[in-house]
Amino acid sequence: MAKKSKVVKELKRQELVAKYADKRRELKAAGDYLALQKLPRDSSATRQKNRCTVSGRPRGYLSKFHVSRIVFRGLALQGQIPGITKSSW
Fold it and tell me: With bands split at pLDDT 50, 70 and 90, how would you rate the model's confidence at 86?
């Protein structure tokens, strides 16, 4: 389980990105890079980090399922993810 502070910080980043998305798009189209620099640093979409929705883990993230590899394995073994079965050969 990730630290709660890291998960909350990432949620705040997502809110900032959504808030400033239109303004950033307009400033980039106009070529006003000085105004872009004055926006909050965390309002840039490239600063976002994918995190597991269950555990908050930042590494081993499976984007198709929005969970980490560890949570994915547990859910798959429990049969919670449709169409996923444990392979054996």
Answer: confident
